Amino acid sequence: MELSDLVIFRAVVESGGVTRAAERLHRVQSNITTRIRQLEEKLGVQLFIREGKRLHLSPAGKVLLDYAERLISLADEARDAVQGGQPRGAFVLGAMESTSAVRLPAPLGDFVRLHPGVRLALKTGNPQQLAAAVLAGEMDAALVTGPMAEGPFERELIYTEELVIVASAGHPPITAKNSEPPRAIVAFEKGCPHRARLEAWYLLKNSMPAQTIEITSYHAMLGCVVVGMGISLVPRSVLATFPEMGRLSVHALPPGSDCAQIDLIWRKGAKSPKVEALLRVLRPPA
Question: Which CATH number fits domain 3-83: 1.10.3720.10, 1.10.10.10, 3.40.1360.10, 2.60.40.3600?
């Protein structure tokens, strides 16, 4: 299996068929068709499900596409590394929901503008999911918070987030001495470090809420808090994006438990030119 086979295979997938792939690669259609059939024969699997003139990826094709992206990207990096060129190829970045929504739009806009040869994809998850994806090679780097195994990763501190408890407007003060638990915690699924921090805080107070309501987005979470379904722990930066701030009350955590560090992590020894380029736009100006 040659790298050129994978380039043709990916072009067919991305273009949606042989005709457009041939135009994109400046080849005749028969050549593209032949190369795809030869690749299927080499691998002993069907890569596409054919419905008339339409092609759909088979399960085996979906597996190969992931490897093709990574191998082509590595080849691009190798060429750029020896030639001193610009970063290029696929780049998959992971981040938590709050970081993606609030912190990343501006720097990623700069990144895309400065590096048009990079195909950027942003995926969200909790820190455990993101770290596992980086280790598995499914992501090039990720922005995470919370305890993380040091051995497999290299990291750089990017942001420090102030964390606050939010409740509905008029909610009584929430303090370390307040033993009255809220009706419920409104949070992301297990694995979210902010949820774990809030649960640990109430456990220390021996006043754990009876229920945790799981939500999949910050704006939905804050909407539930507004109507009194429960309280939540969020980065203060998220509140600037919420249009109904007047219907919330904000409560400070005790010093020492009110901040979270956001690190960019990547596999040890795998600091690629694309990771370097991302760090340049994420670092605050000197």
Answer: 1.10.10.10
